[in-house]
Design a protein that fits this description.
The protein is mainly beta and 415 residues long. The chain has one helix and 31 strands. It folds into two domains: 152 residues, Single-stranded right-handed beta-helix, Pectin lyase-like (Pectate Lyase C-like, 3 Solenoid); 173 residues, 3 Solenoid (Pectate Lyase C-like), CATH 2.160.20. May function in depolymerizing pectin during pollen development, germination, and tube growth. Acts as an exo-polygalacturonase.
């Protein structure tokens, strides 16, 4: 996996000596954007301060147009550029930070809080959108926060019970980007998904903090779809739905050192619901901790898929489960609604999937559930130790799994 550079943070330590003005020598840390009113340059690096484009950052006045104006200036500049959002609370509605940019690399540096409008009539499918940008870094400093103010919207979310529901806005959508780094950002109380990656290539998300109440509907932490070369690491997610979900058409996904809980766990899918879905391949998830979640690692596909697809070449290893309802689960009869008839077989073929070194406790007796539609191919469980503290201990349940077992196994494998 190619490693992208750390985000560009333009910070200068200046010792200003000005005998012309009679000033004493002063040593002070200042951001370059504080030195000149509109933009400044140092060593070919330009910084644009959003406040110099009319952003007030008082948490009340609408700063949408000001932030988009600052982005337009930064995106249109030459060389390596930083757009600085200094300390403050910036109340904004739907905001699009689109390219392509003239800048060879651009950093969106958030030092304050972005606060979403609450009037759903203002929104389409997302709130903040970074799109069609190459070599983008979105970085936070000073406990930077993206606040979706979702509590007012959650009662209007009917997706958990209706297939034809109106989708609420995702907090941050990355669409058609290449070579992106997102780091040191906190996202709270999204209306729907917190962060979504769509048709993006080569992305790294590092040290992301995501928080929403356990009863907040569809507040997935990070959703990946039709993207390739995605790395997520050193991240903490507490939410009301999947901590991380990997949707159709995704390839080469690497996830490491993520704490998940509460929430619904780590999911591949759901897959197989729509016509023309792409395959999900080469997923490596390791060193995760699940605490009080509904699921641990889960693969979920719909029955009666309109077209065939593949979910293959996946390794889940070194997982710690703490009081998790379904620590290991393959569910090819996924349906969250009440009228599911389970008459059809999923059109998603599962192949070459390994669960390795999965340990901890299950809050339900069935700790390993492998429910395949057509027989799964190449499912391996290696060194699994999952205990249920209630009566009877933990057990396994399988359907068309044809799994291979290696090393220590608790619960006992399916007969």
């Amino acid at each position: 996996m190619e490693v992208w550079p750390s985000p560009l943070v333009v910070i200068l330590t200046l010792c200003v000596v000005s005998p012309c003005c009679g000033l004493e020598a002063v040593a002070k840390n200042v951001t370059v954007a504080q030195l000149l009113p509109m933009s400044s340059y140092h060593g070919g690096l330009a910084t644009y301060n959003a406040k110099n484009f009319g952003a007030e950052g008082n948490g009340t006045n609408d700063d949408t147009k000001a932030l988009m104006a600052a982005w337009k200036a930064a995106c249109g500049a030459s060389g390596t550029v930083t757009l600085l959002i200094p300390p403050g609370t910036y109340y904004i509605g739907p905001t699009k930070f689109h390219g392509p940019c003239k800048a060879s690399a651009i950093t969106f540096l958030l030092q304050g809080t972005l606060k979403a409008a609450t009037d759903l009539r203002r929104f389409g499918n997302d709130w903040i959108e970074f799109g069609w940008v190459k070599d983008l870094t979105v970085a936070g400093q000073n406990n930077a926060i993206i606040n979706g103010q979702g509590a007012a919207s959650w009662p209007f979310n009917k997706c958990p019970i209706r297939k034809d529901c109106k989708v609420l806005p995702t907090s941050v959508l990355f669409v058609n980007n290449q070579n992106t780094v997102v780091r040191d950002i906190k996202s709270v109380n999204s209306k729907f998904f917190h962060i979504a990656l769509l048709q993006s290539k080569n992305m790294k998300l590092i040290n992301i903090q995501i928080n929403a109440p356990v009863n907040s509907p569809n507040t997935d932490g990070i959703h990946i779809e039709r993207s390739t070369g995605v790395v997520i690491s050193d991240t903490h997610i507490s939410t009301g739905d999947d901590c991380i979900s990997i949707g159709q058409g995704s390839d080469n996904i690497d996830i490491a050192r993520v704490h998940c809980g509460p929430g619904h766990g780590m999911s591949i899918g759901s897959l197989g619901r729509y016509v023309g879905e792409g395959d999900v391949t080469r997923v490596h998830v390791r060193d995760m901790t699940f605490e009080g979640t509904m699921n641990g690692v889960r693969i979920k596909t719909w029955e009666n898929s309109p077209t065939k697809s593949l979910a293959a070449h996946m390794l889940f290893e070194n997982m710690i489960m703490k009081d998790v309802q379904n620590p290991i689960i393959i569910d090819q009869k996924y349906c969250p609604y009440y009228d599911c008839e389970h008459k059809h077989v999923s059109g998603v073929i599962l192949k070459d999937i390994t669960f390795k070194n999965i340990k901890g406790t299950s809050s339900m007796p069935v700790a390993v559930l492998l429910r395949c539609g057509v027989p799964c191919q190449g499912v391996v469980l290696q060194d699994v130790d999952l205990k249920y503290m209630g009566e009877g201990g933990s057990s396994s349940k399988c359907e068309n799994a044809m799994a291979t077992y290696v090393g220590y196994q608790h619960p006992e494998p399916c007969a």
